[in-house]
Design brief:
By secondary structure, this protein is mainly alpha-helical. It has two domains: 118 residues, no CATH class; 107 residues. The chain is built from ten helices and no strands. Helix 5 crosses helix 10, helix 6 packs antiparallel against helix 7 and helix 7 packs antiparallel against helix 8.
Length: 318
């Protein structure tokens, strides 16, 4: 088979795939319109739909609702296929700051939609790549689309989690110090958490959100050890898990909370100082490569260039 015939076959295959993708999108759109018409008819029969005078929404809002509904359905299909990972995904989303019950479904729907869009983009690039017009640029574009669809949502979620965990780690020693001061002043642990939340809301707003959830759980009657364990799971840092374990042991053994929190706070401060010293000691090793690559050549040139010019001038006379 000649190269021209192969290119023709690839072009027709790409065109068929594009037509199939467009047909599938049209079929999904028709199915969505049919489902919406059925819902409207049911609401009209119930007396609470369009017949009762619904509020008119802008066209952009209606389009956004339709897109969000499509994303939710894609996410629900993905969640049904793999329900075992849904709990782990919900925990990761809560650690990243997404507390909505539908956050996991929306996240899975966004991933599925990104994969579908990337697949459509790659299929549309196939005829161009087959004719040899795109070259390396077309292949890089297809690779970027695929990589963004596969790794993009995960990396965004991971970056948000790391940012939040850094804030939690920085604010946890201050949280413990304020808890120690409140408990030693005579407040109970639950009242101390409520008071500390008001103090931390300006400096660490994301940490204060989790503390407010802890306060609401305690007021609702949840056991203290379970509420603190849930807080540790939401924060996702080792210090919170250690604090939850310490509070559970102190409650079971009947030890003083003030003394326990004081010792734990001192330990946290010592760990924070050791972490800062570790960063400072690692700075010299991290500066070695920039010094060799950038500063040392400039310094060498500044020192050797006058001598080289002088030698050229002397030997040029002879």
């Amino acid at each position: 088979m000649e190269a021209s015939q192969i290119e023709t076959l690839i072009t027709w295959a790409g065109a068929l795939l594009v037509m199939a993708a467009l047909g599938g999108a049209g079929w999904l759109g028709l199915a969505e319109l049919r489902m919406r018409s059925q819902r409207r008819s049911r609401f009209a029969l119930a007396g609470s739909g369009p017949a009762s005078g619904p509020a008119r929404h802008p066209a952009g809002s209606a389009l956004g609702d339709q897109l969000m509904g499509t994303v939710r359905r894609l996410g629900q299909h993905s969640a049904v296929r793999d329900p075992a990972k849904l709990t782990v995904l919900r925990t990761k989303l809560m650690q990243a700051g997404y507390f909505n019950r539908e956050a996991a479904v929306i996240y899975l729907g966004v991933k599925a939609a990104a994969m579908a869009l990337a697949a459509g983009g790659v299929v549309m690039l196939l005829p161009i790549l087959a004719k040899g017009q795109g070259g390396m640029l077309g292949m890089m574009t297809a690779a970027l689309l695929s990589g963004a669809a596969i790794l993009g949502p995960e990396q965004i979620l991971k970056s948000r989690r790391q940012t939040r965990e850094r804030e939690y780690s920085e604010g946890f020693p201050d949280l413990l110090d304020l808890l120690v001061a409140s408990v030693e002043a005579g407040l109970s642990l639950d009242a101390s958490v409520s008071r500390v939340t008001e103090e931390l809301v300006r400096r660490y707003p994301n940490l204060a959100i989790h503390l407010r959830m802890l306060v609401l759980e305690l007021r609702a009657g949840r056991a203290r050890k379970d509420a603190w364990s849930a807080l540790a799971d939401r924060l996702g840092i080792d210090d919170a898990r250690a604090l939850a374990t310490m509070l559970r042991q102190a409650e079971e053994m009947g030890t003083s909370l003030g003394e326990t929190l004081t010792v734990f706070s001192q330990d946290m401060r010592a760990k924070r100082m050791l972490y800062a010293e570790e960063k400072a000691l690692a700075l010299s090793a991290k500066l070695t490569l920039p010094l060799i690559m950038f500063i040392f050549p400039c310094l060498l040139g500044a020192l050797m260039l006058p001598a080289a010019v002088r030698l050229m001038h002397v030997f040029g006379k002879h």
